[in-house]
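Section handout 9: paired folding examples.
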Amino acid sequence: MQIKSRKFLSKKEKKTLQSNLIETYGSDATSFFQMTDNIEEARTDEGNFVVKNGKIWFFSIEKLIIPSIFCLRESEFNLPKIVVDIGAIRFITNGADVMAPGIVYFGDQIQKNTIIAIHEEKADAIIAVGLTLVSSQEFDKIEKGKVIKTLHYLNDPIWKFQF
């Protein structure tokens, strides 16, 4: 990723970002960062990112602000969760979307088009962030096929990015 420009966010820009996060993820999204944190916006050849402590904390796809794995691991905020089995990890961490047979847990109240955290079953560590293609009710009836679009995963350019 080639950095085109970067700048620290003003208090007003931080408040706008926090408002957008609360609108998207609910009031718990205030735990993503404190107003006193040094937060930057980085513009690259691959998009715009919100950076904290030299790591990407948020990225956007089609006007939707999405927390990175770093953000989810460092903040107290929890996205809805799905858990995949050991056999799916290798595929997901290479960028594959999540297929129904690889899922061992799919949260009860998850709706279609929800941003979720993808955990692996042994250590319960977040390995990816995705977008659900089905709801919990639809998932219960599915035996095969793609159910989550992977948006960000371990070792992708967002994960490797550092200032």
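Moving on to protein 2 of 2.
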Amino acid sequence: MLLVSVISYIDRNTLALLAPTILRETHLSNEQYGWIITAFSITYMLGNPVWGRILDRIGVRAGMAASVSLWTLASVSHVFASGVRSFGMARAALGFGEGATFPGGLRTVVQTLPPELRSRGTALAYSGGSLGALITPVIITPVAAWWGWRGAFWFTGTVGALWLIGWWLLPQTTVSPFKPADSGLRLKWLDRDVWAFIVIYSLGAFPLGFVLYQAAIYLSAVLHQSQVQIGKVLWIPPLGWETGYFFWGWVIDRFAGAGANTLALRKQFWLLTVLSLPFAAVPFFSSLAVTLAMMFFAMFITAGFIIGGVAHATHVYSSRYSGLIAGLGAGSWSALVGALMPGIGRLFDQHLYQTAFTFTALTPALGMLLWNSLIRKRK
């Protein structure tokens, strides 16, 4: 599951990494690029809960095979795109297929690990996303340099096909259902805890989407880095995301009872909120090293919101909803990214970088305020 989330983020981040080159060659604006991201985000939002329920019902093995087959074909379809509509259709198909990534990871964690290990297990399964974002510049930059940006999408499709072959070669027992003791609640859509989870995940993690989709464009337009130079350094911010998953997974298991201790989790979320605010200062620095360090730190903090939100939700609700919980989290984040990215792109077109960074830095604070007002009072 770690490997498949690596592949999913290589597939989705290839466009973000190569955006300066693709936008230049296809004459697309930053705002149009934002709408292409929205196409992905909308179908990813819809696909997450849909795949979550599918995986909860038919199992990880068959469900993941179907989803990866779909998104592999969608990834290759980018080769034939040339404008907003064609890129949007390719991204939409990719987004729906990749909606199974985190539901599959969390479903596997709940099936195979006891509650006291699940935050670290979730960190391991989910960290494939950050690892994929980390290695995409290292792998895709030379591929694009040799064969062009279209060749990069042929490459991502090939990687997906190889995973499918390996998936079917795994022993059946590797992903067989496990029945843990289950005393969690039934998930109800109007439950306050459901909406508390949605807001802390989506708003707390919005800076993650900002860095993933806009970092390459910012480094090119403001710090005047070439596509090759960007490829050499853009692995640094996702390294913060990767280390953040494991650090905050350990902290939440150790100090918040794997999400069971709401008071301790509240303190950690307030700390994360305060630590999110310095991201607004990025445009004040012209140093590439400082900019990358601040993006690294922002992604490190974002991981704490994701792991903490998932830990609490999987503690409160029955394990039979684990796929749906993962889908609601990733889907709500995708919906927010899809809604906001065209506006962020417009701010970039107008060179209003300070406004874009300040807005992004404040979204976790809004998420924390809403979470604190919605969450049920437990120990």
